[in-house]
Write a structure and sequence with these properties.
The structure is a homodimer. Chain A is built from nine helices and twelve strands. Chain A is of the alpha+beta class and about 325 residues long. In chain A, strands 8-10-7-11-9-12 form a six-stranded mixed β-sheet, sandwiched between helices. Chain A has a four-stranded mixed β-sheet with strand order 3-6-4-5. In chain A, α3 links the parallel β4 and β5. In chain A, α2 runs parallel beside α3 and α4 packs across α5. The longest helix of chain A has 19 residues. The two termini of chain A are about 35 Å apart. Chains A and B meet through β2, β3, α2, β4 and β5 of A and β2, β3, α2, β4 and β5 of B. β2 of chain A pairs antiparallel with β3 of chain B, so a sheet runs across the interface.
């Protein structure tokens, strides 16, 4: 049985290829980061637990990717540029094959985003992955939840609902074509954090959040913090193609409440429409205007006839509610 | 069953009483911190797991204190001034009494150190507490592990071994007087991070680490990173008073390998002795010179006759090795 220190050294220590801001990485009591003048440090923490955020026996390589991706998604929603991350990992045993595979998925994404593992902790215990990410954003330019204004457009990136579809396939509630299954599982296991889009939306979007718990719940956080309401047109929702074989009710339900999409939902004044499109093109991701922020509180979803659609009004904590 | 968001709101959201550096706390995708020019951000993460870092059924108020204290101890070992922390918490159920008590212990220490909870995550799962702390230290003045020099003195703060004694009492391997039991359990459950000492040692100590896994193991990290050795005189070790009723072998063993002391072990040139004493007086904590850094690699512990003492050479991962 390798010790705590052996495990860290073997899988989670790499030479620091510094961005200039990471002065000291893994191997001391603390990591050290410096920031340029006029930049804030953006920080977010997500904890992933077996049986709640992923199923027992989940592929460790995908898990390595997803654990970092969901954290980077929080930086994206803030318009922050990723700098580095720390990893705290509880493992039931020092399973080398698991660790090697997890590290491969984790570092592939880290390398893709040009960020460093700057520190962390490993311990024996029920599988638990806790990542804290660090990014930088010019002071005053972060995309906060409380910045929306009445009459702002409501936008989402990419498409919605396929991650939830993937979960239904995995738990054998749904059968799909081979192609749709592949798309849905890819969306569930390998979410792509919209980092470039978040950065491009600085000064363009008035508020933003990432969709981890479902559009309804997450947009609800923006509205709550901004003390406003919104009207969403169901026909405008960008439904993922793998969902097209499902009935309309399922499509709407998964797109509105599915969770785990890790797309950005953001608000922007109508005068910024061209800039939003330009930001999306720069980031290489589609964006769709789905509704409008209102003075009237509450979140309304309207069908093609302008009638309120019956949807669950409450976000899931995460799908795996017991 | 309260939702994830309800729990966060109720126990872990407080108005941010900012140090000026915390711009945005709990409630958005990320927290935002700014730093004065010429300061680095020091970051450390520790994960505490039931059955490994604390026993099942541990008092939640003490656990709240200790979870933050062990993280602050890493900042102390770096000479960093604490700014804030994030908390990720997995709980088997939304036990309100547990949460209230845990939060009380956590925030009492946070208030004492004038720091903010700036963000985090709560989820259902086997009990797991993951805290990431943030502090500031002038660029180039952090107390790193790799800064020791041959002929530096080796120092420790406070006294050693009582936390391990507390664990032995708790697991019923030892019986002590009522007074010694109280001291030992206090040391185990309520470690005091040596934050003021760490700050006062900037520019005085050449290297530092906090003693979480035992003096031998932790001093070993300094020596390894500094590519040096050390000689420790067992007679000079500051043995905690609650240990005085034990035989010498037990005293040495607990002081050298006990773990969970959260004192600082640091190195400083002999020319700095007066400054070390002054720093300790300023911080209100005793310090003891216990040996010397050597060019010769390895760590030697000598008895009163100058003969090598037989001690375990390996640090515990943590006491609760299965």
């Amino acid at each position: 049985m390798a010790s705590e220190f052996d495990l860290i050294a073997r899988y989670f220590t790499r030479p620091t290829r510094s961005s200039g801001m990471v002065q000291l990485g893994v191997g001391d009591d603390c990591a050290l980061i410096s920031l340029p003048a006029n930049e804030s440090l953006a920080i977010s923490t997500d904890m992933l637990v077996e049986g709640r955020h992923f199923l027992a026996g989940a592929d460790p390589e995908s898990l390595g990717h997803k654990s970092l991706a969901v954290n980077l998604s929080d930086l994206a929603a803030m318009g922050a540029r990723p700098l580095g991350f720390s990893l705290a990992l509880a493992l039931p045993s020092a399973d080398e094959a698991w660790l090697a595979s997890f590290a491969r998925g984790l570092f592939a994404l880290a390398d893709n985003e040009h960020i460093e593992l700057i520190g962390g902790d490993t311990t024996r215990g029920p599988l638990n992955i806790c990542i804290t990410v660090f990014g930088s954003v010019p002071i005053g330019h972060a995309l906060r939840r409380d910045g929306a204004h009445a009459n702002d457009d409501v936008w989402v990136s990419g498409n919605l609902g396929e991650a939830r579809l993937g979960l239904e396939v995995l738990t054998r509630h749904l059968k799909l074509s081979v192609d749709d299954t592949a798309i849905a599982l890819q969306r569930l296991h390998r979410p792509i954090p919209r980092v470039s889009l978040g950065i491009a939306l600085r000064g363009v979007a008035s508020a933003a959040i990432d969709i981890s718990d479902g559009l309804i719940g997450d947009l609800g956080h923006i509205l709550e913090r901004s003390a406003l309401g919104a009207t969403i047109e169901a026909d405008l929702l960008p439904i993922g193609s793998a969902l097209h074989s499902q009935d309309h009710q399922t499509q709407y339900e998964f797109a509105l409440n599915g969770g785990d999409d890790y797309e950005l939902c953001f608000c922007a004044p109508p005068a910024q429409r061209e800039n939003v499109i330009a930001a999306a093109q720069q980031a290489g991701i589609a964006v769709t205007r789905i509704g409008q922020v209102t003075e009237i509180p509450g979140l309304r979803v309207l069908d093609h006839a302008g009638k309120p659609l019956q949807v669950h009004s409450k976000s899931f904590d995460h799908f795996f509610n017991p």
